[in-house]
UniProtKB/TrEMBL annotation:
This protein's record includes keyword Oxidoreductase: no
Domain ABC transporter: 337-566
Pfam families reported in the protein's UniProt record: ABC_membrane, ABC_tran
Protein's recorded name: Thiol reductant ABC exporter subunit CydC
Localization: Cell membrane
Membrane topology: Multi-pass membrane protein
GO molecular function terms attached to this record: ABC-type oligopeptide transporter activity; ATP binding; ATP hydrolysis activity
């Protein structure tokens, strides 16, 4: 129930619809009981041939109760569904507001298919919380209280039977099935998340599966996950139907008991026979309202699991964010970056990615971070962007801890080119306009020319993820976007790995011209063109093993020197 507090807080925003739903539901239920009890009394009374005006009053009362019941039932449906849809809308907004500050680091903890299942499936599952869990028990309690109170005026024994029936059908039996429902719902939700993940990966990796002729194996795995999910759903449905059948059987047994006890009391003269049919009709009608309680455990458990899965995504991370009041990172000058004794491990991994890393990047300097694949270069760059939280140590921007700064303000003042850059379906112009507002066509065309994409037109189409662009074109388009942003901090991660050497040299020349006064950090495997760097940091296995400028590192003939010699032998043949 603790995780459901978030849902309840969002739900209580719509107090008006909640109150109106309860009022209309109560009126609909109590008038239905009154309608059938009046009908039973009318039948019994008519058999005694009373005056016509008596029958007319009873008939008019029955009609009036029928109209009130229908209108109030419509009102209940209207207000409850309006409240539900508004609640879902508010819940989505609330969840996205909590999850938005966690991106993109959150993608390192959760698979995309699992996140999709939570954001879509679990939020949708919570639509039943208000309709099936929150207000129906309140309405049912009010209806039974009034009905038992009314019945006690005619027969205390019958009122007692109704009370026992109420406890059975709304408390004891649902509680029993709720205990059995937990394990079933947990399996259903887990299998659905697994299926969503498998489907997402199947669609994303379809081309590679096709090329490597592994499509059939993946299809079998997907079919297996689908079959497991369907089997779990079937078991859940059987369980719910059995719960409903049990509740209905008990309700009918209560009515049979009312009839039997009522007949016995009539024979003993303790109950007027004219009221027997009325009491039986009251029992039949009031227990119709207990039908939703049969599936109450299923919806309650489903809501608990859905809320738990949603809250678990944002619980720890949101708490960490709210611990300190964050401020904006604003600077008109090139920032200074300090990394002090940073240790970092990716979520759910035991391998230490960075170990006791300390560097100092002065304002306006140009720094290259080099080293073999897996040495932690890209990770260090992402920590500077505050995409992840360090395990130990700290990173400072202009002497301010990076965790005390709003992530958005850091990104706003940074030109970023990562190894993988996303491109949206649209045009070249649409994708360049992401850099900043107010760009004109001339600025965008000039930026394209600087990265050797001058042959592109701004209206040329870009497919989803840039599927119609080559790897080098994607990188150059991302660099053009960074150039247009022109912020005082540059963080570049292998920005030209798919670009030929001549074009790479031209692009770097333009970057250095634009960033002449800016702080620039370049992660690269290539060791060419690093002579202009103020500082070169050499990393291996998450540690810094050498630091210096190009000349000093070559003179020391250490790790950097050996890598440079190997590069020359491989690519230059010397």
């Amino acid at each position: 129930m603790k995780d459901l507090k978030m849902v309840i807080n969002v739900l209580l925003v719509e107090k008006k619809d909640i109150i109106l739903s309860i009022i209309c539901g109560f009126i609909a239920g109590i008038t239905a009981v009154a309608l059938f009890s009046a009908s039973g009394y009318l039948i019994s009374k008519a058999a005694l041939a009373p005056p016509i005006y008596t029958l007319m009053i009873l008939v008019a009362s029955v009609k009036m109760l029928g109209i009130i019941s229908a209108l109030s039932r419509y009102g209940e449906r209207y207000y409850s569904h309006r409240g539900t849809f508004t609640m879902l809308s508010n819940l989505r907004v609330s969840f996205y507001e909590k999850i938005e500050p966690l991106a993109p680091g959150i993608f390192g903890k959760y698979r995309s298919g699992d996140l999709l299942a939570r954001i879509v499936g679990d939020v949708e599952a919570l639509q039943n919380f208000f309709l099936r869990v929150f207000y129906p028990p309140i309405v049912l309690l009010l209806i039974f209280f009034c009905t038992i109170f009314f019945t006690s005026f005619f027969s205390f024994e019958v009122a007692l039977i109704l009370f026992v029936g109420y406890l059975l059908t709304t408390v004891l039996v649902p509680s029993y099935f709720a205990l059995r429902q937990r394990k079933i719902d947990r399996r259903v939700r887990g299998s659905r998340a697994e299926l969503s993940t498998e489907v997402t990966e199947f669609l994303y990796g379809f081309r590679d599966l096709k090329i490597y002729q592994q499509l059939e194996g993946k299809q079998k795995q997907l079919s297996k996950s689908s079959a497991v999910y369907m089997q779990e759903q079937e078991q859940e449905s059987v369980h719910n139907l059995f719960s409903q059948a049990t509740n209905t059987f008990l309700s009918l047994m209560v009515t049979v008991c009312v009839l039997a006890i009522g007949a016995y009391l009539v024979v003993k003269g303790e109950l007027d026979g004219i009221y027997l049919a009325m009491l039986v009709m009251v029992s039949l009608t009031v227990f119709e309202n207990t039908t939703p309680m049969a599936i109450f455990p299923s919806h309650l458990q489903d809501s608990k699991l859905a809320a738990s899965r949603l809250v678990s995504v944002v619980r720890n991370e949101s708490a960490a964010i709210k611990m300190k009041k964050q401020e904006n990172f604003q600077t008109d000058l090139s920032p200074k970056i300090e990394v002090k004794n940073v240790r970092f491990t990716y979520p759910n991994e035991s391998r230490l990615t960075l170990e006791n890393v300390s560097i100092n990047l002065e304002s306006g300097t140009k720094t290259a971070i080099v080293g073999p694949s897996g040495s932690g270069k890209s990770t260090l760059l992402q920590l500077m962007l505050n995409l992840y939280y360090v395990d130990e140590g700290e990173i400072l921007l202009n002497n301010t801890p990076i965790n005390d700064l709003l992530k958005e303000s850091i990104w706003e003042n940074t030109n970023v080119v990562l190894q993988t850059n996303h491109f949206f379906y649209g045009t070249i112009r649409d994708n360049l306009k992401l850099a900043k507002d107010g760009l004109n066509d001339y600025d965008m065309q000039e930026a394209l020319a600087k990265v050797d994409l001058g042959h592109f037109k701004l209206d040329d189409s870009v497919l989803e993820k840039g599927e119609n662009l080559s790897g080098g074109e994607k990188q150059r388009l991302a660099i053009a976007r960074a150039m247009l942003k022109n912020a005082p901090l540059w963080l570049l991660d292998e920005p030209t790995s798919s670009v030929d050497a001549l074009t790479e040299a031209e692009i770097y020349q333009h970057i250095f011209d634009i960033a002449s006064e800016d702080t620039l950090v370049l992660v690269s495997h290539r060791l060419t063109g690093l002579e202009k760097m103020d500082q070169i940091i050499v990393m291996d296995h998450g540690k810094i093993i050498e630091t210096g400028n190009f000349q000093s590192l070559m003179e020391s003939k250490g790790y950097f020197y050996e890598m440079k010699m190997i590069e020359q032998n491989v690519f230059l043949g010397v």
